[in-house]
Structure formats: C-alpha cells, structure tokens
Amino acid sequence: MTSADGKRERRLTFQAAELRPALLEGFVLAVASLVTYLLAAYGLASIHSLSEEDDLVGALWAVVATLFVCRFAYRESINAADSRTIATLLSFVLCMTYLLVLPFSAVGMAVLVGLGAVILKVFGHEQEIVTAGITTAVIMVIAAASPNPWEEPILRLADTLLGIAVGVAAVWLVRTLRRSRGTAAGE
Length: 187
Prior knowledge:
0% strand
C-alpha cells in the first residue's frame, strides 16, 4: 500500500498471492544453506582443517555468505556477490598481512577495521565498509584462538567464496525455474 505522501506503508498483512513464491524462496534458502554447510564442514574441511571447531565456524561463515547473496532478484544477488567479494578480499589482504607479522590484538583488529573503512571510502566503495568491518572482526577474533592464526584469512576467504558461489547458483536456479514457467521477476 502507498500512503498519501507516496511512501510505501510497511504493515504485516498476509498476502496470499505471495505464498507460492515465498515457499519456493524459503525452500531454496533452506537447501542452499544446507548444501553450503555440508560443502564447507565436510568438503573444505577435508582439504584443510585446523580443528573441528574451526570447521564449524567456517561452515557458519559460508552459510552467512550464501544468505547474504540470496536476494531472488538476480541483479541484486550479483551486486550483493560483488559487494561481498570486494569486502572479503580487502579484509583478507589486511588480516593476512597483519597476522603474518603480528599476533592478534584488539587494538590491531580495530586498526584494521578503520583502515579498511578508509580504503573503501577513498576508492568509492562505501557500501562495503560494514561488511568488510564485520569480516575483519570475525577473521581476527577467530585467529586469536587459532593455533595457526595466519591460516584463518585463507580459510575464511575459501568459506566466503564457496558461500557466494552456492548463493548465486541458488538464485540462478530460481530464475531459471521462473523463466521456464513464465514468471521471471527482478531481472
């Protein structure tokens, strides 16, 4: 609904016409989350594992990336994937450089979050500042408990890229199904 001033009202009302698309999208999110979790917890972990706990954190991080990019409007998902990739790559470079030279510290983490914000701002990517900050904080805090802190940026990069790939594939699948039924949305 639209109010008198032209703004869309945000009320919680049941919309029967949205039930089928909602069921499809909910099912796809559930399956994509499960596939991502299994691929990260068992697939990536079989390639390289620091600990069972770290594998679970990696699986969680991969699922977060999947959910971040699943927007069900294909263009929005591609934009979200680009945004997540930019933020993650910057965070990877900052954290990897830091952890190769210094051990974790809260001050070091804060400096990296701030430095990432400055870099993204001056290169015109303000929209990635929060995501890069979150990613940097996650990597650094996990590295604090890791027996090999410098490996954490590599592992979280792999988790994130896996999650992005599964998320984009899930959205592509929904887009393909909708097109085959003549109900494509969000191009």
